[in-house]
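Please predict the structure of the following assembly.
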Amino acid sequence: MKTAIAQISQISPKKELLQNRLVITGLEGKKPLAGTIRISGAKNAALKAMAAAVLFDGPVTLENVPDTADIHTLAEILIRLGAKVAFEKDHTFTVTIDPTTIAGTAIDAESAKTMRGSVVLTGPLLARFGRATFPAPGGCVIGARPIDLFLEGYKKMGAAVSENGQYDIEAASGLAGAEISFEKISVGATETLMMAAVLARGTTTLKNCAMEPEIVNVAEWLNSCGADIRGAGTPTIAIVGTAGKLLKPSASYVTIPDRIEAGSYLFLGALCASELVIENCRPDHLQAPIELLKKAGVPIETTADSIRIVGNDGPNTSFKAFDLKTKEYPGFATDLQAQAVVFLTQASGKSDVYESIFEGRFKYVADLARMGAAIEQTSQREVRIEGPADIHALPEGEQLNAHDIRAGFAMVMAALVATGRTALSNIHLIDRGYESIEAKLSALGAKIERVNN
Ligand code: EPZ
């Protein structure tokens, strides 16, 4: 059955969703969880494929799309621009997007505020229609998140950019190929300029690119539909533009497994599961965290598409603490930093964790300290942890919030190993990136429920 997206999505969380909380009963430092987690499609790849749909001359089909809130938000934005979007739910989503009815090129401020990642749409819109409007971004919970790299790139490709509370980007006679060397490595800027260049006149060379697997996933699909993108997954990407000729939807897009969801459950499993199989994932996309956890002593085995934690019965104190610095792929992902920190609160020894991608990603640290963790923020980008420390639920009346998608997951991990019951608020943020978190965890034996009050 196809479901119209307009019936099942929301631009900003409804009041009752904002009031939802997860109530988690702590396992008191023990590791009784066991079972299998099936990993969903990568939201950060599917979102970019949804944006790339704008480059096509007919409806495109996207498979293995996760049922997470950000996907619905971007669908709603596309609908507001005039696209037709339909969802079909089996055990995953298949999303069909018809871009031929798009009439607008301005992304509204409310949507852009809800999902900063919607800026990627400006690339395909500019490529197809010669103009795009995006509201000037403010800060967001994890940092300033400027869009200067996008704007510099567009200018190099011949577009005019004017700013007046919003950015109006215009290239009336189409974008022209250019050589763009990014001053900083950015996932979003790499993907967006890559997509913008697909319909340009001439060749665009992007240098100092991000190398995340999600970029490769989208590039390979676009190539199977007539684009000419070379080097995705390396620091230099060259795109030979079609000079305005739209892509043909000759192949469906299939979303790769979400490496961040898999990595999150890997840290959770190391912390509180005696046995865990993480299936339908790509261990080769998670080399940095797997290596660190193995060195810490976590019993991990991998196949091409699964990760297993086996015989993880001993106390967490038997794991050795490690230092960590987040980096661009293939380095340790910033999106796994908070989950690693919660793991380290229970390992033995001191750890220094340095966040090199986003400057505001330690908001959850004060909450962990309130729960009893021996953790201290030593600078804007660094925390020091000394483990193991007993973690407890907060006293009645004290509030625990998810601060962002990933810190929200990390708080669930902390609540799971704590003594007592924890109520976690602001969980619409977790829903932005994790499909059915309470169902997946309940299946492992966790006591976790969603309540509305
Ligand atoms: C993507 O964000 C992901 N989001 C993030 O995942 C992820 O944390 C991040 O990449 C890093 O891996 C999506 O894919 C939707 P960046 P993105 O541009 O593209 C600076 C999650 O939880 N920068 O690689 O926005 C920026 O401020 C989310 O799923 C500029 O200075 O990240 C940051 O310091 C959160 N100027 C650094 O680059 C620009 O024009 C890297 O950010 C653009 C970025």
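Residues 44, 47, 117, 143-150, 184, 186-189, 210, 334-335, 357-358, 405-406, 433 surround EPZ (CB under 6 Å). Residues 43-254 form a domain with the UDP-n-acetylglucosamine1-carboxyvinyl-transferase; Chain fold (CATH 3.65.10.10).
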